[in-house]
Amino acid sequence: MNLFVQFFFTMAIFFAGKRQPGELPGNKENWTKNADAAYQSLIQNFYNTGGHYFNENNSGGKKFHYWRNAHALDVLTDVYIRTKKKSVKKYMDELVSGMYIQNGNSYIIDYYDDMEWMALACIRAFEATGDKKYKDIADLLWIDIKTGWDDTWGGGFFWNKERKNKNTPANAPACIIAARLYQLDHNPAELAWAKKIYRWQKDQLVDPATGLVWDGLDAGGTNKDWKFTYNQGVFIGSGVELYKITGDEGYIKDALKTAHHSLSADITKNGILKDEGGGDGGLFKGILVRNLVLLIKDGNIAEADMKLFGGFLLHNALVLWLQGTSQPGVIFGANWSKKVTNTDTSTQLSGEMLLEAIVSLGNMERL
């Protein structure tokens, strides 16, 4: 890590350490207020009130995207956990209904990874609200997702039902689903699934030297060139979830190796998570953010690592809010250091995930 990056992480930690009781960290920013503003922007600028889903962007595109709306449910759950507002729960309920209708009266699609994100969002929504319909959706999806596994290339889930390639996006999230379902239902079969998926993912798609998580493989071999924030995040999350169940510190060692590498030039630039464009790529950073928070919160990691990763996230939030947020509309772009006026819902969601992460870590006094 170069001195420039170290300086900004140190400053982020400094601001965190100087806060008064009950005050959230970071350059005297009111992160709860900022997160509220981002939530209002998401509803006002992206929500389709007639179709009950989130539009493609804030510039007139109304196309429905299943995967992005699954993450929107996850963000609404973040807001509900923080505020407990009935109005937020109403949007959550509308969204799962709207997604069902927009998808042809079904939650099942051809892409296993997209269904996995919907299952994960529904599990969190169930845990947050106690509303069983969310758990029922997750269970329904998990049954279909498990049909995507076979012994080609030693195991693993296919990316989609064409069954031509297997990748991290279809496997690491599935491991998290199995682990979280085990924690809810205590079914040993789910824990067996989680361990089996994790072993395949680690053996096939993680660089043993650096912890860098590769994207996928097919008949032509392993793709080691795509270095996405997304993939690092879901492998970290897999390790944390299995550690929570088993207490096996090997899972946390794996997660920490990948997390530390995520602060390298492969994934960041000057201490900021790299620009991976709009479209689906706009969501990738938020996925890593979400799982770094999980590592800090549930990984039982050393204080120095908590401060390192917390400072990293806080630095990203400061840059996003002070340099990369268009005001007064509160719009985020793919590059967190540059302002835009038009953006995809995916990139907006990533920015909101980051702000919610800072509030969450501040409330847990992990910054």
From TrEMBL:
Pfam families from the UniProt entry: Glyco_hydro_76
BP GO annotations: carbohydrate metabolic process
Protein name in UniProt: Glycosyl hydrolase family 76
SUPFAM superfamilies (alphabetical): Six-hairpin glycosidases
Keyword tags: Hydrolase
Gene Ontology molecular function terms on file: hydrolase activity
Gene3D superfamilies: 1.50.10.20
Organism: Chitinophaga caeni
